Amino acid sequence: MQHIEITHNPFTVNTAILVNGKQPAEGSPLTAYREQRLQRWVEGLFGDLDAVFNGATEFKLTFKGVESDWLDINEAAEKAEAEGMKITLEHAPFAKDGEKRLQELVKLKEKAKAENFLDFNDGDFLHNFQKALDRDFDVFVVATMSSGKSTLINSILGQDLLPAANEATTATIAEIYDNDGMPDGMFNATCYAQPGYVSEIECKEQKLDEAKSVKKELLTEWNNNPEVFKIKLEGNIQGIEERQHVRLVLTDTPGPNNSQNSEHSRTTQKCIQDESKQPLIIYVLNGTQLGTDDDKHLLGLVSKYMNKGGKQGKDRFLFVANKMDNFDPEKENVPDVLGRVHDYLESNGISHPLVYPVTARLAYLLRKEKAALERGDADRLTRAEQGDLNKLKFSFDVDEQETRDMDMEQYMPLSGRAKEKLDKRKLPPLLRRSGIPALESIIDEYIDKYCFPYRVKHAYDALLEAIRKAVNKNELELQLDQDAKALEQIKAAVAELNARKDKSFDLEVYKERIEREGKALPEPVEKTLFAIQQERMPVLADLDKRLHGEVSPLEASRLLGGANKELLFLHNKMVNAYEEEFKKAQDAIRADLKAEYQAYVQSLFPESNELKLPLLDSIKRSLGDMSLDLGVRNEDVQKKDKYEWQERAWYNPFRWFGDSHTQEYAGTREVVDLGDRWAKAKTEIETALRGLVENAQVHIQFGHEQLIEDYMAFMTQQFDKHFSQLMAELDAKLSDQQQREDAIAQAKAQLDRINSFEAKLKATLEV
């Protein structure tokens, strides 16, 4: 039996593996695991072990790490055992979870503030730490029409809030913010108009109306109001675990081809394409009606991003087969229905999808009934709802042997930990059979597995960088501990440094050099822009083949309407991809400007042997540590609410075809020349799509130029001020012996405190 020992730290993303007590040989596939998240390699672990040991089938695996990663090891082992391996698993005591570590980091930050050894005016530090603590965790509910999406969300809320009678009329984005401090069953709401741009980089929402303890009737009214772009609700989402540092934001997205507002359509696609935040996506399917064109386009996009993201890419897409109560269990069974759903998803490029069968209607009615009883029958079930509930209770009766197959939970790929949490909630068995509580537990598990490690590491990095700056500052003070001869030499060095600075930075000359050399788009961005532009070619070629000949107006309307949907999807997909490249280009220019800054600082320092003093290295590090503060505004960092920069819309809205294709006449028969209609539209469409990439390049280039302007402002304002202040303080300490001695004593004491703090900080990441 081969013994494999795995220690995985999800916070540092580091894996240590021992094979029979030794490091795996270089070139072994196991060495590739060292700096990858466990979810990237765990599915291939036992296949790699099989290859390393030439078909050996018996393994003992010992694991050290966090419980959520251990569950993934377990799952991979079960699959390997099903294929003939014999695996013995054991684990060390589980390491602290991410939420506890985040709480420790917040306490350490407050300790650093109390002891006054971190610079809390540092914009980068405040921004990065606050970003790590951003409580909002996004879960997007996505679906095409007739899937029961709104009913599913209402079942999670336990309230009849979102309009569900006709999902085609879902015209707004509804964001539901979890607030465990609010009374059960009460939701406050605010509606907003489409955001208005107040400057090139700032976008503000305009509030239209608000209501306390809102009812469905008002939300329906808002939803039907064309001025309303977004609705925000706040209340206690009872099925999601309360956490200090995570606030669930459940978003009901309009359909991907929503015709009332193209921005809504883009939002739905954007949540799928978001590779940075990787929000959880609940994709709702009608278990009894599969195969819409809208699904085909959206699932193609999902497939692309699932395949790019390893196990996390798979975990973040939950395919919910809803309306499982809408078929006759005496004629077909749940496994058969789920088999069709799996086949349908596989046919759309989704390999090994995680499918969760639910009957949202049952959970919604049970929770509404319970809430009505608790609130004194204030929102009791209607007669029709009571009739539906009675029928569902009969179909899902937990006491009847014949209905045991209708327990949705038994078909869900739940971990042992998720099942244990469900048991602790002590829910009514009938509610559990609906599958909705199990879905809620899976959302909780995703937060534990992916959200917390990401936030812990970013908070840790922000504090560690701040500590490094504090150490440099205090080491600079210690360099003042010199004899009289050395002090005179240091004074001369500081005087020369001042002189160099005064004559070394000519802003106009620097600007001319930047303009002359240029800050072209990074080559990878250029290549990606070209690849995005080419995505239109196969779509247009396919439409060329399909749109030709004379057809009836009704058929023309159907075919051109379908083409319009495809082009809308393509347009939104391209816009989202361009905006992602905009962010990458911004990161690239920031890195470039940081390198420029470091080179400038380096150029300030004399290179002659007599001036190579330790003090100069400390000054150089102190200047190099200064935050460039490009695009980070301190006043925004301090806001409690979620805040994001948004750019002025650089793209034109989708406005092709319109209603002009409904009918044309030829002789006495009403027909449409489809080829002619498409040829006319295609010219406009190709022009618009070519213009899209040109506008994107202008948009990205503008972002480059804006950051360069910010950098120039920094160099002439913040850097000058900081440099002058540092030199003045040094000069005073060099001239005044008592002041110098006090500074040295304070620095020694402060460094002791910093070293103790750093040891506690590093302990927060240990497993």
TrEMBL record:
Q: What is its main location?
A: membrane
Which Gene3D superfamilies does the record cross-reference, listed alphabetically?
P-loop containing nucleotide triphosphate hydrolases (3.40.50.300)
Q: Where in the cell is it found?
A: Membrane
This protein's UniProt keywords: Coiled coil, GTP-binding, Hydrolase, Membrane, Nucleotide-binding
Name of the protein: Dynamin family protein
Look up the domain of life of the source: Bacteria
Name residues in a coiled coil.
473-500
**What organism is the protein native to?**
Azotobacter beijerinckii
